From TrEMBL:
It comes from Parabacteroides hominis. It is a multi-pass membrane protein. Signal peptide: none annotated. This is Cytochrome ubiquinol oxidase subunit I. Keywords: Cell inner membrane, Cell membrane, Electron transport, Heme, Iron, Membrane, Metal-binding, Transmembrane, Transmembrane helix, Transport. It comes from the Bacteria. It is found in: Cell inner membrane. Belongs to the cytochrome ubiquinol oxidase subunit 1 family. Pfam families: Cyt_bd_oxida_I.
Amino acid sequence: MIASIDTSLIDWSRAQFALTAMYHWLFVPLTLGLGVIQAIMETIYYKTGNEFWKKTTQFWMKLFGINFAIGVATGLILEFEFGTNWSNYSWFVGDIFGAPLAIEGILAFFMEATFIAVMFFGWDKVSKRFHLASTWLTIIGATLSALWILIANAWMQYPVGMRFNPDTVRNEMFDFWAVALSPVAINKFFHTVLSGWIVGAVFVIGISSWYLLKKRETKFSLESIKVGAVFGLVASILIVWTGDGSAYQVAQKQPMKLAAMEGLYEGGNGTGLVAIGLLNPEKTSYTDNVNPFIFDIKIPKLLSFLAERDVDAYVPGIVNLIEGGYTTNQGTVALSAAEKIEKGQIAIQALADYRKAVEDKDQVAAGQARALLDENFAYFGYGYIKDPADLIPHVGLTFYSFRIMVILGGYFILLFIVALIWSKKNKFADARWLQWASLWTIPLAYIAGQAGWIVAEVGRQPWAIQDILPTGASVSKLATSSVQTTFFLFLLLFTVLLIAEIGIMVKAIKKGPSVN
């Protein structure tokens, strides 16, 4: 069946999933960031008893609620697509991938769904302490929801804690904690949540700046900016640390992604990091000997340090990863792509031989086939790869997305520092240039988040599960026309939802908090 799936079906299925995921990520980061900020503000109200902070919290809570409601709709569709568009994937690893998603639904989603009602409708109906607890439990539930989804995603990038059962042709979990606490999962969780915190902080500062530009709600705006600037600066500093961890994990677990992020074709010792560079569009193949850059400025030896914590360490490039032969950081000689493909084909054939032997009740042949399968299963997914060049992700998209994310991350740190200093000196209310900059930073925060996900997901192609299952072998056998139809239906639906959310938010913002 896999051999009969056409490329256009794979591309349209990927496009539909990417569309849903990218729209969903327009709502999630604001939920994560604004949720914590409103909880901090309510904590100030609880400590001080000042009604100003209660009304301030209620205003930001209203915007949180609008965003939260729309985000739930896109998230539900995203999970259903695993069954409709990626049935081979769901069959092959559903026993593992489904566990974190089930926990997310049973624990985290129900937790936030329970306490969000008290948070919105419990003012003056429950005690201040219980209401504050409900607010914090709502955002903790939303954050735990993100945790389990990111654990599932991290497992796709670094599959651990599993065994392959040739009798069912399914991967089965044997170590839950290896999946839940993998270094990739922990780092991905903190990095992603912190990016949401930054979006929330930028949103609060930007909307507050709009009020200052309109000469409205001055006290509300200045106090909100102080909270947002401190919160955003802390998140931005922490995300530099998790970003370094991400680079290290990618280097260790997904070296081809790292090579694409850097446009690195020929690796070496003491490799520099490209600070600024323009890729050469004439570079169309890893074998064409064309310089990959029109120009580039590198920070000497920094990539080696980030990848291996050693300024003189060897970092393989795309060509090296395809051709193999270099010494890995474990001291072994790296296999070439051709050798991995051969081992993958052996594993696939061994699986077929095992199932045939079991059917024929030939225990000796079954044992031999099982041993051969176990020996080569680490390269199982490579057996579906037709051309070594297919192992290279889209270099341009990965390279530029990574730099957009990093450059904007540096800009956010600068913005938060300036906003905090100007606030402390009581200059923010008169700094119209800073107010305009803060307002127009809101879309940049979303662009940075989207760029990060492009690096994570485009950079790991062609793999749905790293080294074990390529995207082309994961897709459902559907009519391409049906996927195209639902793609455009989702595009229309999500666009309408986004326009509706923006419209409702703008109306609420124009009405204002009325706390002055």
